[in-house]
Protein 1
Amino acid sequence: MAMLENKVALITGAGGGIGQGIARRFAREGACVIVAEIDEATGRATAEQVNELGGKGLFVATDVTDKASVEAAVEAAVEHFGGLDILVNNAFVPSANVLLEDKTDEMLERTLTSTVKASWWAMRAALPHMKQRGGGKVINFCSIDVEVGAWLHADYNTAKAGVVGLTRSAAAEWGRFNITVNAIAPTAMGATFHKFAKENPGFAERAAAMRPMGRCGDPEHDIGPAALFLASDLSCYVTGETLHVDGGLHLPGYNSRPENVPVREY
C-alpha cells in the first residue's frame, strides 16, 4: 500500500519548484493533492501531473496574501475529497533584493502576509477538519537565510523566523489533537535557482561546491522524500522540529555580503 493512500494533502505554491516537487512525490504515494496555486497554467499542469503519477489532483486558484482565498482552498479540499490530512505551507511572495535600510514597509507587510499570516490562516482553517479525521500533519517552511542573516533578505528572514515560532507553538498546543507540526529548511533547484544559473555562468557549479554533498538538491527527489516523511506515519512521534534538507549547506553556512557594499560606512 502506498504511504499516502487515501490521504488528502493541500500544498500552497505547488505550481512549480519545491511545491511541485512535493506534489509529484505525494502523487507517487497515492495522495489526493490540492494544488493551491495563484498561476492557473502552472497550477493546472501540476494537477495533471499528479493524476498521471497515480494520485488525484485538484487545482484551486489561491492567493496566499488573501485570507479568504486561503480559507477557500481548505474548504475546496474538504468539499472535493471529503477531508484534509496534510497541509504544506510552501508559497510565499518574494521582494526585491535590497539592503535592510532600503526595504519598505510594504515589502515587509507583503512578505509577512505571504508567509506567517498565510500559514496561520491555513493552519487555523485546517484544524477542525484534521481534528475530525483524528489527527493531521502540518509542514511549514523555514530557511537557512535566517541562520546566516542573509544579506538583502531582511524581510524574508524576519518572516521565516516567525514561521519557526508558529511551528513550535502549534506543535506544543496541537499535539493533544494528534497533529504534528514541523518545518523544512530546504535548498533546491527551483525556478529562482535556474534563473540565477542562466544569468550567471558558473553559478550552479559554485552552489554545488558549497554543499558537503557536492550537489544541488532536486525538488522532487531530494526535498520530496523529506516532506513525505513528515507527512506520513513514519514521523508520528516527531513534532516541533525544523529539518535541514540542503545537502549539508547549514554546516558551513555561507557569506551573502554583496561585493559592492563597503566594510565601513558613516
Protein 2
Amino acid sequence: MNSFADVFRHYTPDVAPFMHKMLAYYQETQPYKGFSIVHNVPLTQTTLMKIACLKAAGAELVVTNPSFMQEDSNTIKVLEYEQIPYVPLELVKGEFDFLLDCGAELVENCHATKGIVELTRTGAMRYQQHTEFHVPIVSVDDTRLKCLETCLGTGEGVYRAITQIADTDLTNRNVLIFGFGKVGIGIAYYFSKITPNIIVAEADNERLKLIEQRGYQSVNARNSQEVEKAAEKSDLIVTATGLKDIISNNYHPQAFKSKLLANAGAEDEFGFAFETSEVLADKKPVNFILKEPTLMEFLDPIFYAHNIAIDDALNNKKTGFRALDKTTDEAIVTDWAKHHCWTLEKLNSIF
C-alpha cells in the first residue's frame, strides 16, 4: 500500500465502518483546520486510516511512534508520500494544540494548548499523576468501547501471536495469566477456546471473584508461594498487569524458568530477573510481532474515539483528567455490535 487511498481500499467499509464514515465527514467539514496535532500511536498500516482522517480534517500533523514497538518502514513511506512528517519519539518536542498520545510518552517534551487525548491505561495513570496541565485530558481507556480493542482485539492478537510462534500445540495445556483487567480478560477468553486449564493471578478481591464466576481458576497474586506453584505447573505464562518488573519484584524467578513466557503489556512485566531471550518477542508486547497486532475490526471504533475525543475537549473545556463522554462511548459500542453481529448480551458476558 502506497497511499491513504490504498489503505481505505484495502480496509473496506465492512471491516472499518467508523473510519470510512469519519473520513467522509472530515473531508466535508474540515473541523480541525489549522490545529497542530502530534500523533503518538503504534505506527502500523491500520493506523494510517486514523491519520488520514486527521489530515482530511485539516490538521497540521506530526506523527511519531511509541517506544515499545518498532516503526513500520512501509508505513513511513506512505506518510512521506502523503507529505506528513514522521519524527522519532525522542526528537518530538514543542507546543501543539493537541497531543494524541499512547502511554503518556509525549508528556515530558511536548506542551498542549487545547487538549490531550490518551489511549492506554498506563498512560491514563501517568497523566492522572500530573497536575500541572491546564487543558482537558480525555481518556478513551476509561470507556466501555476500549474493551472492544483492548479486551477482544488485544486478547485475540496475543492469542494469535503466541499460537503462531509457540513450538508446541497449546491445546489442553496449562495457561497462567497475570492480571484480569481488560487485556487479561480477553486473553483468557480466547485461550478458553482451546484449553479449559486456565489460572489467573490477580490481587484485587473483586476481580478474584469474577475470575471464578467466569469459570477459570484463580490464585491470589499476593500469595507468592501459591503463585509460584501455579507457575511451576504451567506450560504458558502471560503477563497482562501493566506493572513493570512485577514478576521479578514479587516471585522467585526459578518457578518461571523453562516455561513459554509472553508479555502482553507495554512495560517489561517479567523484569530484571529474566533475559530478553527468555520471553517471546524479547519482552515486548507479544502481539506486536504480527503484521497486524490487532485486527482492524477491533481498532476501528477506538481509532474513531481517539480522534473525536478532540471534540470532547473542545466542547467541554474543563481542565484536568476525565473519561470520554459516556453517551458517545455507549453509542459507539452499540453501533459496533450491530455492524459486526455481536449482541450486547454477549459482550456483557465477556467484559
Protein 3
Amino acid sequence: MPAEREVLTWESFGAASRALAQEVADSGYRPDLILSIARGGLFVAGSLGYALDVKNLHVMNVEFYTGVDQRLDLPVMLPPVPNAVDLSGARVLVADDVADTGATLKLVRDFCADHVADVRCAVIYEKPRSTVECEYVWRRTDLWIDFPWSAEPPVAADPGP
C-alpha cells in the first residue's frame, strides 16, 4: 500500500466539483443527462447536476475495486442496467470520482456509444495509467486517493445473503 496519498476532503470536493462543472460549461457542452457510475460517481453526478442545471440523472452500477489497489480482472455491470432506449440520441456526461485504470469508464462509455448522440467523461481525478482520456478532469495524480465518502469504514457490515 502506498504511504503517500491524495486526500480529498468534503470541503475540497465542493470546490473540485464546482470547478469541474465550470470546465464543462466553459467547453460549451450541454449534456441532456448525467450518467453516474456508482458508487463514487454518485457524489460527482449530483454536484454536476446542480451546477449544470441538469435534472436528468441516471445511475450505472459497476463493480471493479474490492479494496485498496485490489480489483477484479474486469469491471462488471450490476443490475439494474440502464435501458439503452432511455439514452437514445442524448448528449451524455458520464461522471465518476476517478479514472484509475480507465476500465470502468471504458465499459460505460462503450455501452453508451451506440445509442447516444455524444458521450463525454468527467472525473475529479485521472491517473496517468488510465486507458480513457477524460474530457473533463479536475486534477491528475498517480497516488492512491482517500475520498471523504470512503475514508472511514462502514458503520455496519454487509450481512450477506
